[in-house]
Design goal:
By secondary structure, the chain is α/β, with parallel strands linked by helices. The chain has helices spanning 28-35, 92-104, 114-121, 127-138, 142-152, 155-179, 183-209, 211-219, 233-244, 275-279, 284-299, 315-323, 344-351, 367-378, 394-415, 420-437, 444-452; strands at residues 6-9, 18-24, 36-38, 49-56, 63-72, 83-89, 108-109, 221-227, 246-252, 257-265, 268-272, 302-308, 329-334, 356-359. The two termini are 21 Å apart. The protein binds the ligand Nc1nc2c(c(=O)[nH]1)N(C=O)[C@@H](CNc1ccc(C(=O)N[C@@H](CCC(=O)O)C(=O)O)cc1)CN2, guanosine-5'-triphosphate and potassium ion. Pfam families: MMR_HSR1, MnmE_helical, TrmE_N.
Length: 458
């Protein structure tokens, strides 16, 4: 299919040292040449060179910009098409004017994610790699970034392709069997389906097990801080933020602007909920009432419950423990610099096996222990080390779950002695579903929707 030529500003909207207008497509060089004035034309420039010159409006003859223009010829480029990158001085108006000129002289404005979409459509990367490009941009911690980078480089794709290959081999075996239906072959085929199917099932299960961690790395672990008034919730928030540097994002909500803060606690991105509420020195239970607090707490993946070492456990504390039933939580007994009036044994009993940490936030004590407890809760054991091929994308998780179910159905059909061609249907379905992870056999509307979530110019 013949593609048109697209252009966009590929650097953030704002003032910077340099701003880049990127053009991709068959007319990229021709379009840029209409605007470029240098010692020779870009058409004559060798590929992968950067060329000094000026950008001129061909209609008025006005010089708009002093520039360095990169010429990158197909196919060894990001999109596998001809690419021009015009490096402007980074003022918003000049970058915008250069973009406007490219749009008048042969390019059309790119849609969000369209450069990466072309890299996918032109076969440089598959869908899971393209999705990882977006994760890379949005990564909140080094660890999340490493995971995304792994996926950009195709680590998940390799695994999925290997699984599909194995499924395909069993399907091929079945085909042979149907064509030459000998008694022995049938039995062998069923046995082979069981062996291969079980191996695939285990590998898919392993990928799904990593998904929980992957999702946390990608989206952050939603965390609430709760506790009676004056126990030290704000102090805890401030300690976590100060030690770890928070990223604050405003998310326009329907009723009000919710402020979300991310802090990176030893590789775990905590998404602290309702921090505005905490800062306003209001206790969430007091402000929202028990029912809504219950919901906020239930929706969170981690609760940090703060108690006061200097006061005996009250009924209100016990009520909070009630709200935390069955939930991941860490109990923080704060103000250990003051006289002990709280029974640590009682707190531990209420904690019901969950970590209990003592702190004096005033004296900066116990924060390390708290951070270790948070990390241990989510990156226990083998996850700590090398395996960074987490599945973190909910689309991928859903597909892997479907694939697992299909393989399990094939296995139980084989077990109960169903004819091989019946078993084959389930295996084929698993193969197809896995194909959707890497973008084979996915619908165009889905592809459009996935790429539309990208940033402009990516
Ligand atoms: N100026 C600039 N910097 C950038 C990008 C860009 O588009 N422009 N990138 C945009 O996100 C990232 C780099 N990603 C890239 C990925 C692949 C290829 C590429 O040309 N791949 C070819 C050839 C590889 C080779 O020469 O060996 C290929 O894979 O076939 C280029 C950039 C980050 N930095
Ligand atoms: N002695 C002592 N005081 C502390 C400690 N941590 C916090 N405080 C003090 O306790 C008071 C309440 O702390 P905050 O962090 O505002 O407590 P809070 O739970 O957010 O309070 P509310 O917003 O009223 O619910 C402040 O005066 C803090 O300085 C501690 O470890 N030891
Ligand atoms: K407070």
């Amino acid at each position: 299919m013949e593609m048109d030529t697209i252009a966009a500003i590929s650097t953030p909207m704002g003032e910077g040292a340099i701003g880049i207008v990127r053009i991709s497509g068959p007319k990229a060089v021709e379009t840029a040449d209409k605007l470029y004035v240098g010692s020779s034309s870009l058409a004559d420039a060798a590929s992968h060179t950067i060329n000094y010159g000026h950008i001129q409006d061909p209609e008025t003859g006005d010089t708009i910009e002093e520039t360095m223009v990169s010429v990158l010829r197909a196919p060894k480029t990001y999109t596998k098409e001809d690419i021009i990158e015009i490096n402007c001085h980074g003022g918003l108006t000049s970058v915008n004017r250069v973009l406007q000129l490219t749009l008048v002289h042969g390019a059309r404005l790119a849609e969000p994610g369209e450069f990466t979409k072309r890299a996918f459509l032109n076969g440089r990367i598959d869908l899971s790699q393209a999705e990882a490009v977006m994760d890379l941009i949005r990564a909140k911690t080094d660890r999340a970034m490493n995971v995304a980078m792994n996926q950009v480089e195709g680590r998940l794709s390799e695994k999925v392709k290997k699984l599909r290959q194995e499924l395909l081999e069993t399907v091929a075996h079945v085909e042979v069997n149907i064509d030459y239906p000998e008694y022995d072959a049938e039995e062998m085929t069923l046995q082979m389906i069981q062996e291969k199917g079980e191996a695939v099932r285990q590998e898919v299960q392993h990928l799904l097990t990593t998904a929980h961690q992957g999702k946390i790395l990608r989206e952050g672990l939603s965390t609430v801080i709760i506790g009676r008034p004056n126990v030290g919730k704000s102090s805890l928030l401030n300690s976590l933020v100060h030690e770890n540097k928070a990223i604050v994002t405003d998310i326009p909500g329907t009723t009000r602007d919710v402020v979300e803060e991310y802090v990176n606690v030893r590789g775990v991105p905590l998404r602290l909920l309702d921090t505005a509420g905490i800062r306003e020195t209001e206790d969430i239970v007091e402000r929202l009432g028990v029912e809504r607090s219950r919901k906020v707490i239930k929706d969170a993946e981690l609760a940090l419950l703060v108690l006061n070492y200097n006061e005996a456990i009250t009924d209100a504390d016990r009520e909070l423990f009630q709200l935390l039933k069955g939930q991941d939580a860490i109990i923080i007994i704060n103000k250990t610099d003051l006289e002990q009036k709280l029974s640590v044994e009682e707190a531990e009993e209420l904690a019901d096996g969950r970590p209990v940490i003592t702190t004096s936030l005033l004296q900066d004590e116990g924060i390390d222990e708290l951070e270790e407890a948070i990390r241990d809760l989510f990156f226990a054991g083998d996850m700590e080390g090398g395996d960074l091929s987490y599945v973190s994308n909910s689309r991928h998780i859903a597909l892997l779950e479907q694939a697992k179910r299909a393989v399990e159905e094939a296995l139980s059909a084989a077990e109960s002695g169903m004819p091989v061609d019946m078993v084959q249907i389930d295996i084929t379905r698993a193969w197809e579903v896995l194909g959707e992870v890497i973008g084979e056999s996915v619908q165009e509307s889905l592809i459009d929707q996935l790429f539309s979530q990208f940033c402009l110019g990516k």
